[in-house]
Structure to design on (186 residues):
């Protein structure tokens, strides 16, 4: 080592330092730097999520209004009519308004997972009519806030007749079971 000149000693020291830094980097220093800098991105992500939650809370009145509107079914003339039958009557009226006969069917009521107070009422509609009337009926369903569960449209090329099989749904408040109140059995 004494025979080396100043230049060679400097190159040897630089080479040893580079090898040591590379070895340290490969065996763990890289992970320390990554975790230190990723902590900043986690904080930034949490801040963004917090801001999004604040924005959602700012819209709480609109959300509550829409939530109430979704559960409001058109009121039936008969107060004893269940929400499912009231919804069926409402869909029937919309169909008749556009010139479609609505076959008498029983609505299908579905439970909504993790929701106790509301249920999903489905009504299947099968119509046959002109393309224009079918489009008007579908737009009426949409304007009334109905949920499209299934839409199947079939037509022939030479006729202006469309056969539509549509299942629409609405969220309805569950009815409380009816029973006699105040009557005790011995």
């Amino acid at each position: 080592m004494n025979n080396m000149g100043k230049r060679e000693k400097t190159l040897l020291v630089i080479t040893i330092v580079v090898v040591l830094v590379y070895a340290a980097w490969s065996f763990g220093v890289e992970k320390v730097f990554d975790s230190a800098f990723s902590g900043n991105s986690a904080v930034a992500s949490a801040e963004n999520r917090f801001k999004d939650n604040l924005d959602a809370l700012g819209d709480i009145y609109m959300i509550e209004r829409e939530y109430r509107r979704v559960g409001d079914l058109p009121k039936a003339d008969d107060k004893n009519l269940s929400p499912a039958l009231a919804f069926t009557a409402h869909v029937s009226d919309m169909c008749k308004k556009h010139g479609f006969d609505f076959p008498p069917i029983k609505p299908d009521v579905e439970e909504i997972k993790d929701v106790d107070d509301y249920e999903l009422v489905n009504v299947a509609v099968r119509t046959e009519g002109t393309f224009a009337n079918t489009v008007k009926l579908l737009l009426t369903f949409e304007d009334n806030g109905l949920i499209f569960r299934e839409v199947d449209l079939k037509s022939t090329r030479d006729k202006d007749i469309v056969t539509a099989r549509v299942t629409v749904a609405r969220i309805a408040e569950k009815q409380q079971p009816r029973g006699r109140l105040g009557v005790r059995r011995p």
User: Anything to note?
Assistant: Residues 180-186 have pLDDT under 50 and may be disordered. The radius of gyration is 34 Å. The helical segments are 6-58, 60-71, 83-97, 131-143. The chain has four helices and four strands.
